[in-house]
Amino acid sequence: MPAPFSRALPRRGTRDPKPARERTWTRLSPLLRLLILTQLAFNIGFYAVLPFLAEHLGTAIGLAGWTVGLVLGLRTFSQQGLFVLGGWLVDRYGVRPAVLAGCVLRVAGFAWLGYAQAAWTVIGAVLLIGFAAALFSPAVESEVARQAVLWERAGHGPRTRVLALLSAAGQAGAFVGPLLGGLLLAVDFRTACLVGAGVFVLVLAGHSRLMPQHIPGRVRTRERGAGRVLLRNRRFLALCCAYGSYLLAYNQLYLALPDEVERATGSQAALSWLFALSSLLVVCAQLPVSRWAGERLDLRRSMAAGLALIAAGFALVAVGSPAGWTGAAGLLPAAGFVVLLTLGQMLVVPAARAWVPDLAEDGRLGLYTGALSSLSGVIVLIGSSATGSLLDLGLPAAVPWLALAAVPAAAVALLPRRPARPAAVPAASGEQRHGQDDRQ
Known about the structure:
Growth Hormone, Chain: A, transmembrane, transmembrane transporter activity, mainly alpha, two-stranded antiparallel ribbon, cell membrane, single chain
């Protein structure tokens, strides 16, 4: 077994002993670079199609509004809701099979969606698209987290730097994808779907060639009962609740923010600019923010600071709304909310992902990574329904925003307080444990 984590790592809060000018990317292993570039490609292919799906279903195919909502909901459920299943499959069968199977399903789903003309065919296509993500996303995220722990153990710096690169790559893909999709829609929606499928064909080919058959130190586990143990893991469940509060806050970009923008300007035209602002902030500032936080804050303090910034963003709109500003001035509280929410996201997301290896059982990192998304998604589902009802009550504009500010503020108290146990990541030699098989 490897030496205790505390002996192998510099004390958190001290500066990285490596030269400050040495870029994180140059010190990553080829496997980490492959996985991070994979995240970029995933999001380019995904966001080249999905942002335009609702309009296509309603106008080109002529589905009723409730059917469009059902299709979008089923896609979200088949993705977020099944992350925990995908994570379990990753632990059992390995990273490479999960990523390759996910790419095959995504190619088939996008190609099918491009030719789907009836409700049942559209539903089948989006279920394939969603389940594909439930396979490859836990695989990529859990292996990046595992490799980030090893990277930290080697003395390269906080693991959050690696996970920040993953977040920045994903956000860059989410920014480029809709731009590509908008250009492709000049031809038609089918072309956008086929190009999206083509992106995943390239990812499939790249992983077939470059992904190792066996990743040193990665184990496959066959023991049962992991779900029961997970549900008794109070510290992990507390992390899920705190992370779910962040996701609920982030979801207000699509629920509460449009109402505020329309109140201030009379339309929702400025929304695209605010979304672009959020994406560019992550792409440009994620790495500097994570570097700063990694040198000064532990994981709990980083998440607490991020949640506090998010709460401040909601409070800013609550304070600015009663002034009744309109036009460009009226957008200032909304823009401030987007900036603070995005800064909070930059602290919360890498820290939450970095914390999971310390809370997961040995050999169950995929399951716990998937469960973080699935359990948090349940919180968002319940919370979004409550938020929608709150926005429909006709209350003063400040009241819903104050209520929303209370959610991330209260979540700070949910964060686990006791120090996490050292992440049990096998050494590079790939030591096996009882009842486990390290072959992938």
